[in-house]
Amino acid sequence: MNPHDFLDVDRDLSDEERAIRDTVRDYSAAELLPHVADWYDSGTIPDPRGLAKGFGKLGLLGMHLTGYGCAGTSAVSYGLACRELEAVDSGLRSFVSVQGSLAMTAIHRYGTEEQRQEWLPRMATGEALGCFGLTEPDSGSDPGSMRTRARRDGSDWVLDGTKMWITNGSVADCAVVWAATDEGIRGFLVPTSTPGFTANVVHGKLSLRASITSELVLDGVRLPSDALLPGAEGLKAPLSCLSEARYGIVWGVAGAARDCLVSAVEYAKEREQFGRPIAGFQLTQLKIADMLVDVNHAMLTALRIGRLKDEGLAKHAHISFGKLANVRAAQRVAAKARSVHGANGITLEYPVMRHMMNLETVATYEGTEEVHALTLGRAVTGLDAFR
């Protein structure tokens, strides 16, 4: 039976959804998979603009948005693309997610028509890259405590502060930056060529290495009044964008888990000890069975939340449920798959340790396990335990 999809979850996909799945899967196998181990080993993506343009040709950037050159696909179709990308590497799904679900969504949802026309068509093709500046060195799970400030100076805005762990920050053309003002949290479009804006690449990462991560420094960055995202008022705006990105994670980690399972099954059937393949030993089969259950539960969870999203019924807590459950499942699968591979599992010849390390980042970014657990607790009890 098929370890890729034991419960035949994809049988419930439409013809269009299958076509998108297959297109992204084929592209990933041909253009991404042969290089990703080297990218991970070197700790960077050598040609992020080339990568963006490749994704743009496939229509993956902002694919769930409508107009401005965006594909306008269903939530499930977007999820399937995330699954196939993260089956290669979490950093690649993060690349697409930050561009489309964070930066482009913020502009599409909260920007003016002029801002949309200026940025979205170029971002959809990959000609322009965006990043999303919310997290700070001392402000992760509590974004309301951010120290980045925006003050009025005549008709201009002046921004000062630091953002941390920003994907694509050093290669972006436009940064969506969130700052505290006298009127509350507001969002700004900051062209990265603006004087006073600096992006410093974060080195020494042990996880999500096939991804460019940066620190953003804003030192007296002066912006015209039309840099403000007028529809974004308060924390609800950036958090709504994060919810879009988290939805992609729900699908993405199911892809990472699936890849670990497939690698473990193939390896166990080939690796011989004591005169026979280790796949024939009971303890190995127990690990495989556990992984199989987790992978298929994750795929079912992703599809169900995707269908709810397409019907307009998905709540913030549903996304938290998916991220909490599926990341946990993927981490269990990666750990078991690594043990099946033995010493070989720690090398880049096999994908399992790379996925395992990446999932450590995915578990904490865009909402830690604790934050999502408290979100679920509040949803079913009506009591807020955050403070």
Automatic annotation (TrEMBL):
<dbReference type="GO" id="GO:0046949">
    <property type="term" value="P:fatty-acyl-CoA biosynthetic process"/>
</dbReference>
<dbReference type="Pfam" id="PF00441">
    <property type="entry name" value="Acyl-CoA_dh_1"/>
</dbReference>
<keyword id="KW-0809">Transit peptide</keyword>
<comment type="similarity">
    <text>Belongs to the acyl-CoA dehydrogenase family.</text>
</comment>
<dbReference type="GO" id="GO:0033539">
    <property type="term" value="P:fatty acid beta-oxidation using acyl-CoA dehydrogenase"/>
</dbReference>
<dbReference type="InterPro" id="IPR036250">
    <property type="entry name" value="AcylCo_DH-like_C"/>
</dbReference>
<comment type="pathway">
    <text>Amino-acid metabolism; lysine degradation.</text>
</comment>
<protein>
    <recommendedName>
        <fullName>glutaryl-CoA dehydrogenase (ETF)</fullName>
        <ecNumber>1.3.8.6</ecNumber>
    </recommendedName>
</protein>
<dbReference type="InterPro" id="IPR009075">
    <property type="entry name" value="AcylCo_DH/oxidase_C"/>
</dbReference>
<dbReference type="Pfam" id="PF02771">
    <property type="entry name" value="Acyl-CoA_dh_N"/>
</dbReference>
<keyword id="KW-0274">FAD</keyword>
<dbReference type="Pfam" id="PF02770">
    <property type="entry name" value="Acyl-CoA_dh_M"/>
</dbReference>
<dbReference type="InterPro" id="IPR006089">
    <property type="entry name" value="Acyl-CoA_DH_CS"/>
</dbReference>
<dbReference type="InterPro" id="IPR009100">
    <property type="entry name" value="AcylCoA_DH/oxidase_NM_dom_sf"/>
</dbReference>
<feature type="domain" description="Acyl-CoA dehydrogenase/oxidase N-terminal">
    <location>
        <begin position="14"/>
        <end position="127"/>
    </location>
</feature>
<dbReference type="GO" id="GO:0004361">
    <property type="term" value="F:glutaryl-CoA dehydrogenase activity"/>
</dbReference>
<keyword id="KW-0285">Flavoprotein</keyword>
<dbReference type="GO" id="GO:0000062">
    <property type="term" value="F:fatty-acyl-CoA binding"/>
</dbReference>
<dbReference type="InterPro" id="IPR006091">
    <property type="entry name" value="Acyl-CoA_Oxase/DH_mid-dom"/>
</dbReference>
<dbReference type="InterPro" id="IPR046373">
    <property type="entry name" value="Acyl-CoA_Oxase/DH_mid-dom_sf"/>
</dbReference>
<comment type="pathway">
    <text>Amino-acid metabolism; tryptophan metabolism.</text>
</comment>
<dbReference type="InterPro" id="IPR052033">
    <property type="entry name" value="Glutaryl-CoA_DH_mitochondrial"/>
</dbReference>
<keyword id="KW-0560">Oxidoreductase</keyword>
<dbReference type="GO" id="GO:0050660">
    <property type="term" value="F:flavin adenine dinucleotide binding"/>
</dbReference>
<dbReference type="InterPro" id="IPR037069">
    <property type="entry name" value="AcylCoA_DH/ox_N_sf"/>
</dbReference>
<feature type="domain" description="Acyl-CoA dehydrogenase/oxidase C-terminal">
    <location>
        <begin position="233"/>
        <end position="380"/>
    </location>
</feature>
<dbReference type="InterPro" id="IPR013786">
    <property type="entry name" value="AcylCoA_DH/ox_N"/>
</dbReference>
<feature type="domain" description="Acyl-CoA oxidase/dehydrogenase middle">
    <location>
        <begin position="131"/>
        <end position="221"/>
    </location>
</feature>
